[in-house]
Amino acid sequence: MIILAGLLIGAVWGASLARKRKGSRLDIAQYAVGFAIAFGILGLFATLIIDRFI
């Protein structure tokens, strides 16, 4: 669940950041995917760390 939340939050944040910077649709898509991947990986590591300690 943490991974999916990270993907969603990253995509929304990346898209909003690209819109603020007046990017085209492709820029918005690229930022959304890039941030989603980054936040998904952070969520994966958070899930693994939590799983190890519990």
TrEMBL record:
<feature type="transmembrane region" description="Helical">
    <location>
        <begin position="28"/>
        <end position="50"/>
    </location>
</feature>
<protein>
    <submittedName>
        <fullName>PEP-CTERM protein-sorting domain-containing protein</fullName>
    </submittedName>
</protein>
<keyword id="KW-0472">Membrane</keyword>
<keyword id="KW-1133">Transmembrane helix</keyword>
<keyword id="KW-0812">Transmembrane</keyword>
